[in-house]
Design a protein that fits this description.
Elements: H1 20-35, H2 44-73, E1 77-81, E2 85-88, H3 91-97, H4 101-109, H5 115-121, E3 125-127, H6 131-145, E4 150-155, E5 163-167, E6 170-174, E7 187-198, E8 201-206, E9 212-217, E10 220-232, E11 239-248, H7 255-259, H8 263-275, H9 287-316, H10 322-325, E12 326-331, H11 338-349, H12 354-364, E13 365-368, E14 379-381, H13 382-388, H14 390-409, H15 415-421, E15 424-425, E16 431-433, H16 434-440, E17 444-447, H17 450-458, H18 462-467, E18 472-474, H19 481-487, H20 490-500, H21 521-546, E19 555-560, H22 569-585, E20 594-599, H23 607-624, E21 633-637, H24 643-649, E22 655-658, H25 670-676, E23 680-683, H26 689-696, E24 702-703, H27 708-716, H28 722-726, H29 729-739, H30 752-760, H31 766-785, H32 787-799, H33 806-818
Parallel strand pairs: 1-4, 1-12, 4-11, 12-13, 13-17, 17-18, 19-20, 19-22, 20-21, 22-23, 23-24
Antiparallel strand pairs: 2-3, 5-6, 7-10, 8-9, 10-11, 14-16, 15-16
Helix pairs in contact: 1-2, 1-4, 2-5, 6-33, 9-11, 11-12, 11-14, 13-14, 20-21, 21-32, 22-23, 22-29
Bound molecules: pyridoxal-5'-phosphate.
Pyridoxal-5'-phosphate (PLP) binds next to helix 6, helix 24 and helix 25.
Length: 827
């Protein structure tokens, strides 16, 4: 449909004033006229909404300006497609980035409202599971900060990831109700809705010129409706859009059916459509669960691509310029079906020929790989794709034919290599491999740390890398220093500013100026004082949530992340048991008091992960209540790990546990947040730990354990870990305590199988890394006892983490993948 041209000199309102007085007046006005509440009876949630609405208008001023500029200049746009955006709370981020934190605080003071109290009321947008989703959120903020015109595209899950509660130490999953009070940050765009189809059949149509065009006639339809959230960069540099899609039925109610008395049946279609955007990671243990997941992926991919192509045509009028004006980044393979969808839109809707469409598609897409674990590489049964997306299946076959021809004729691949690069896995039930699809349809593929990128080239994509050399590159992850230092740790931010000036706030690599102060006893004392205050706050939270008393003078040893066997919370817990045993056996020794903090969610169908949570809680109960321990060791598991909890825990950590089985953590970003906030890392040579060690110096980290190569070698020999256990009395005793029921007297066999796995195959090398890990922990104790040395190391960690900013990562994507300019500094 023809669109009206954009008129840039249309009248604009005056930008909103930014003074305390103006804010105060407007918060009152929003409360009265938008929330509809008399200030005399307004509740805290009403004030929260009114405050966000008032500040939002300042954000909108920048938003309009950013958008007008992109339309005016015709600059290239970046589209970041991700099934997850773990953005957390938005209020502190937005207020702080546009520089209105203090004025708002004062305005609210004048109204007798406490900003801190309001901030705690804001729900976390938990639209993600872990690192991958948090990365997407950091990237959005960085793209705004370095002024890249960008959109995030994802799903507006009504319930997001589940809320975790504990029941007798077991995880229980409850729906997250983040929208219960509405969401004042978002704008529903009814006018931006697209039809999404599923099922049906494909009809070849003979064109007058003799060519054949394909028409897909889906049997099911629903609408994708856009909800937009503005994302402000640091100092308001630019405001980009996070566009999340919500599924809605085309016919909300079948009135005939309803009037016939079939009330439920009349609404069934509606419920089915809406189910698509209800929850993140529906359990996929059943075929219905798997299908829902594929529906989610196609739903948001299709809506996003229709929107991108519509916007491009509206502005530029031709499709040939797509790669010059559009870059689409696939965050893992979840949106990889976009490649087939783009081909369908270009050919079936716009009549392009195959060769042209394929060239444009590859010019536009690039793909980030986040995992090499075979069970995590997405694939879909051919039969399911054929039924749900018949036209896309045809296109995937056609792409595959082209790739396999090249592999045979150009690269001279043998049958094994052909089978390896094929988009179709022919072993057993035929499946479409989404990693292969994403790879062949992209001009650039990146890993997320140096080590992970190398492993990618050697393992899953070895043959594709031979076939298409130079597509793979590394873009080591980063985190936004605004959220993960300036906002979550105001005490440290103030201290650093006092010492080296505020320049680091705009150029985070200036943190390196702290190096010169690392040995200064006065600065060390101040640094430790800030950490102590953060630990007091965390101790208060632990008391409030768990009723466990911990001393802020103890060493706070923290492992917070999704619960997974490869992340090896089990190694940490077993070491805690061994340590507990040693404290009891040797009361005469000078033990360093420690608090072990855990948090993290387990996937609902991942039994061992849930069992590890229960084990942690079982052990915590025994250790925390054993008078013989004399408070020298405490173990706590904080429920419902999310961004807000991370923002409280990380600034209070002394020791950061990054102990994954080497070769299995693609990058990690938690590791970066901790070090930035002055925690020392105990970790393996895995993911970005490797590069962190180079940045901070090996003498400022506690590295232990097998390397990725050694792990691969042991696995290939199927070596049994018996020796590792027999030769380590401490490990043996700890394992026997756990498996014999010392911590589970109500069910002594609860952990028998879990521990049995360590004797049997020990896939994750828990037993084989135990001794070096325990030694590293005692090394930690030794350094902690020399507090000046510890503090110097902590300062050096903060000083050298500037490179791990997502601004740097995004600048690399911009220069090396997207081909878009960047610029720094506020508007
Ligand atoms: C940073 C972050 C993660 C990723 O942590 P890793 O330790 O890298 O796995 C996961 N969840 C939340 C809430 C985070 O903030």
């Amino acid at each position: 449909m023809p669109q009206k041209p954009i008129v840039f000199d249309a009248p604009q309102p005056e930008p909103r004033a930014r003074t305390v007085e103006a804010l105060k007046a407007e918060i009152l006005e929003r409360l009265t006229y938008s929330v509809g509440k008399d200030p005399a009876v307004a509740r805290p949630h009403d004030w929260l909404t009114a405050t966000i609405l008032a500040v939002r208008e300042r954000v909108i001023d920048g938003w309009m300006e950013s958008s007008r500029e992109t339309w005016r200049t015709g600059n290239k746009r970046v589209y970041y497609l991700s099934l997850e955006f773990l953005i957390g709370r938005l209020m502190r981020d937005a207020f702080s980035n546009i520089g209105l934190m203090e004025p708002v605080r004062q305005a609210l003071d004048g109204l007798n409202v406490d900003l801190k109290e309001l901030m705690d009321l804001e729900p976390d947008a938990a639209l993600g599971n872990g690192g991958l989703g948090r990365l997407a959120a950091c990237f959005l903020e960085s793209m705004s900060t370095i002024k890249i015109p960008a959109y995030g595209y994802g799903i507006r899950y009504a319930h997001g990831l589940f809320r975790q509660e504990m029941s007798e130490g077991w995880q229980v999953e409850l729906p997250e109700e983040w929208l219960a009070h509405g969401n004042p940050w978002e704008f529903e765009r009814r006018e931006s809705s697209y039809e999404i189809g599923f099922g049906g059949h494909v009809e070849p149509v003979q064109e007058p010129d003799g060519s054949v065009r394909h028409e897909w006639h889906p049997s099911e339809h629903l609408n994708a409706v856009a909800f937009d959230t503005p994302i402000v960069g640091w100092r308001g540099a630019r405001v980009n859009t996070l566009r999340l899609w919500s599924a809605q039925p085309i016919d909300p109610i079948l009135l005939d059916k309803f009037n016939e008395g079939d009330h439920i049946g009349a609404l069934a279609e509606s419920a089915k459509a809406e189910a698509i955007t209800r929850v993140l990671y529906p359990a996929d243990a059943t075929p219905a669960g798997q299908e829902l997941r594929l529906r989610q992926e196609f739903f948001f991919s299709s809506a996003s691509l229709q929107d991108i192509v519509r916007r491009h045509l509206q502005q530029f009028g031709d499709l040939g310029s797509l790669p010059d004006k559009v870059a689409i980044q696939l965050n893992d393979t979840h949106p990889a079906i976009s490649i087939a969808e783009m081909m369908r839109i270009l050919m079936d809707t716009h009549g392009l020929r195959w060769a042209e469409a394929w060239k444009l598609t590859k010019g536009v897409f690039s793909y980030t790989n986040h995992t090499l674990m075979p069970e995590a590489l997405e694939s879909w049964p051919v039969a399911l794709l054929e039924r749900l997306l018949p036209r896309h299946m045809q296109i995937i076959y056609a792409i595959n034919a082209e790739v396999l021809t090249e592999a045979r004729t150009v690269a001279g691949f043998n049958d094994a290599q052909i089978a390896n690069v094929s988009l179709i896995d022919e072993g057993g039930q035929r499946r479409v491999r989404m990693g292969q699809l994403a790879f062949v349809g992209s001009h650039a593929i990146n890993g997320v740390s140096a080590l992970h990128t190398e492993l990618m080239k050697k393992t899953v994509f070895a043959n594709l890398n031979t076939l298409y050399p130079d597509r793979i590159s590394n873009k080591t992850n980063g985190v936004t220093p605004r959220r993960w230092l300036l906002q979550c740790n105001p005490g440290l931010t103030r201290l650093i500013t006092d010492r080296i000036g505020p320049a680091f706030q705009d150029d985070i690599e200036r943190l390196a100026d702290l190096e010169a102060h690392a040995e200064d006893p006065n600065f060390q004392a101040q640094f430790a004082k800030v950490k102590h205050a953060n630990k007091q706050a965390l101790a208060a939270l632990i008391k409030e949530r768990l009723n466990v008393t911990v001393s802020p003078d103890a060493l706070f040893d923290v492992q917070i992340k999704r619960i997974h066997e490869y992340k090896r919370q089990l190694l940490n817990v077993i070491e805690a048991v061994a340590h507990y045993s040693a404290i009891r056996a040797h009361p005469e020794r000078n033990w360093v008091p420690r608090v072990k903090v855990f948090a993290g969610k387990a996937a609902p169908s991942y039994w061992n992960a849930k069992l590890i949570i229960k084990l942690t809680n079982d052990i915590a109960r025994v250790i925390n209540n054993d008078p013989a321990v004399r408070g020298l060791l405490k173990v706590v598991f904080l429920p419902n790990y999310n961004v807000s909890l991370a923002e409280t825990i990380i600034p209070a950590a002394d020791l950061s546990e990054q102990i994954s089985t080497a070769g299995m953590e693609a990058s990690g970003t938690g590791n970066m947040k901790f070090a930035l906030n002055g925690a020392l890392t105990i970790g393996t040579l895995d993911g970005a730990n490797v590069e962190m060690r180079e940045a901070v110096g090996p003498e400022n980290m506690f590295i232990f354990g097998l390397t990725a190569e050694e792990v691969a070698e042991k696995r290939s020999r199927s070596e049994v870990p018996r020796g590792a256990i027999d030769n380590s009395p401490a490990l043996k005793e700890a394992l026997e305590m756990i498996s014999s029921g010392v911590f589970s007297p109500d069910d002594p066999n609860r952990y028998r199988e879990l521990i049995g796995g360590l004797y049997d195959h020990d896939w994750f090398m828990v037993a084989r890394d135990f001794d070096t890990y325990a030694d590293a922990q005692r090394q930690v104790d030794t350094v902690w006892a020399d507090r000046r040395r510890w503090n110097a190391m902590a300062i050096r960690n903060t000083a050298h983490m500037g490179w791990f900013s997502s601004d740097r990562t995004i600048a690399q994507y911009a220069a090396e993948i997207w081909n878009v300019p960047t610029s720094r500094g506020g508007a």
